[in-house]
């Protein structure tokens, strides 16, 4: 009876209780967003990648494959590279080398909650990189962009197409012959 009367009159509700209720709702909402970005979204992406025929490592909560990546790097760097060995992939990128060997030329791994797709087939890579639909996005590094300025390598979309069109004639074979000959003759002397 007392509870019903208390709920009916908003003036009698203590402000601290109202503040705690709002704080609880905000915390619950943020926890849901965090759970979505760290568990549900990566699991959905993993299922979508597997449905497209890609094989890869299973998602591990929060860290992905970072622990195994670090362990394989430490193991590879602990022993010296044999003399006259030109197979440097296991030494330089041991985790990617193992992933490609185990899962095939098109596979995915996890960098935290973000999947990284690795494509080693040149024809497939050319098809992905020449795609004009904009599904392939360059990774963004805002601190490096500020350090190295806003260059062609950082542009995307229409801005990239415009600057590429400006620079493309500079790399035609006829225009590159003269500097190449000059460099060649100066290196002989």
UniProtKB/TrEMBL annotation:
GO terms for molecular function: heme binding; iron ion binding; monooxygenase activity; oxidoreductase activity, acting on paired donors, with incorporation or reduction of molecular oxygen. Coiled coil: none annotated. GO terms for biological process: lipid metabolic process. The chain crosses the membrane at residues 12-35. InterPro entries: Cyt_P450, Cyt_P450_sf, Cytochrome_P450_Monooxygen. It is found in: Membrane. It holds the Pfam family p450. Keywords: Heme, Iron, Membrane, Metal-binding, Monooxygenase, Oxidoreductase, Transmembrane, Transmembrane helix. Its main location: membrane. The keyword Transmembrane applies. It comes from the Eukaryota. Signal peptide: none annotated. GO terms for cellular component: membrane. Belongs to the cytochrome P450 family. This is Os01g0627900 protein. It comes from Oryza sativa subsp. japonica (Rice). The lineage of its organism: Eukaryota, Viridiplantae, Streptophyta, Embryophyta, Tracheophyta.
């Amino acid at each position: 009876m007392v509870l019903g009367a208390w709920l009916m009159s908003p003036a009698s509700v203590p402000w601290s209780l109202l503040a705690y209720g709002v704080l609880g709702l905000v915390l619950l909402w943020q926890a849901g967003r965090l759970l979505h970005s760290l568990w549900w979204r990566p699991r959905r992406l993993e299922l979508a990648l597997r449905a497209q025929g890609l094989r890869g490592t299973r998602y591990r909560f929060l860290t992905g494959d970072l622990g195994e990546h670090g362990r394989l790097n430490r193991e590879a760097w602990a022993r010296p590279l044999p003399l006259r060995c030109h197979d440097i992939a296991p030494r330089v990128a041991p985790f990617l080398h193992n992933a490609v060997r185990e899962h095939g030329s098109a596979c995915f791994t996890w960098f935290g909650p973000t999947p990284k797709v690795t494509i080693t087939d040149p024809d497939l890579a050319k098809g992905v990189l020449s795609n004009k639909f904009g599904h392939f996005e360059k990774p963004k590094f805002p601190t490096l962009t500020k350090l190295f300025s806003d260059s062609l390598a950082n542009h995307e979309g229409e801005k990239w197409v415009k600057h590429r069109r400006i620079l493309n004639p500079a790399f035609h074979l006829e225009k590159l012959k003269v500097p190449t000959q000059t460099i060649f003759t100066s290196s002989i002397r």
